[in-house]
Design brief:
Layout: H1 7-19, H2 23-38, E1 48-50, H3 62-70, E2 74-80, E3 88-92, E4 99-101, E5 107-109, E6 124-127, E7 131-133, E8 138-139, H4 145-150, E9 160-164, E10 170-171, E11 185-187, E12 192-194
Parallel strand pairs: 1-2, 1-6, 6-9, 7-10, 9-11
Antiparallel strand pairs: 2-3, 4-5, 7-8, 11-12
Pfam families: 5-FTHF_cyc-lig
EC number: 6.3.3.2
Family: Belongs to the 5-formyltetrahydrofolate cyclo-ligase family.
């Protein structure tokens, strides 16, 4: 890990690790993730949560999404804001939601104003990430979408940001920037980290 001196180097290395996971390893991680979710006290009172659709080797939370549906928790998925560059919208996501790839090739719900859930109404935003460290610092893909979404709510109790990652995405320390929003909790298949 000595050679991973820049955020770009770290992104490249960790993305290579997670893309190299076999289909079997990905499926196993997804099942273990659900087991971790069953133990989350934050979900006991949650009405609206945001998750994501996996891309680029990310741990797949689709089984968690299905679990939320069965437990009457409204689930939302991020959509790139069509008019406000660098911003996210969150749309309700159901088994019937139509999906289309965005400019990054990531599937997202087809934009419908009626399905938008304001960020302030989300109880939890489960965020994907590229890497995280033992202090709760998160390294994303580099677009800053989640940091911009979460920054206005840093001093609020909701929405609570919780990261989701494979175990192989954990490092001892990450170089962080002033705009990086730290996470109080990160879930991996084997452990839930809290700070």
């Amino acid at each position: 890990m000595q050679s991973l001196s820049t955020r770009s180097d770290i992104r490249k290395h960790i993305r290579t690790l997670r893309v190299a996971l076999t289909k079997s390893e990905q499926q196993s991680a997804a099942f273990q993730l659900v087991a971790q979710f069953h133990q989350l006290p934050e979900l006991n009172s949650a009405k609206n949560v945001a998750l994501y659709l996996a891309n680029d080797g990310e741990i797949d939370p689709y089984l968690v999404i299905q679990w939320c549906w069965k437990n009457n928790i409204n689930t939302c998925i991020p959509v790139l804001h069509p008019f406000s560059k660098g911003q996210l919208l969150f749309l309700r996501f159901t088994p019937d939601t139509e999906l289309a790839p965005n400019k990054y090739g990531i599937l997202e719900p087809t934009l419908s104003v009626a399905e938008i859930v304001p960020v302030a109404e989300l109880d939890i935003i489960f965020t994907p990430l590229v890497a995280f460290d033992t202090h709760g610092h998160r390294l994303g893909m580099g677009g800053g979408y989640y940091d911009r979404t979460l920054t206005p709510f840093i001093d609020s109790s909701t929405p609570k940001p919780i990261g989701i990652a494979h175990d192989c995405q954990q490092l001892d320390t990450l170089p962080n920037k002033d705009w990086d929003v730290p996470l109080g909790k990160i879930i991996t298949p084997s452990k839930t980290w809290s700070w």
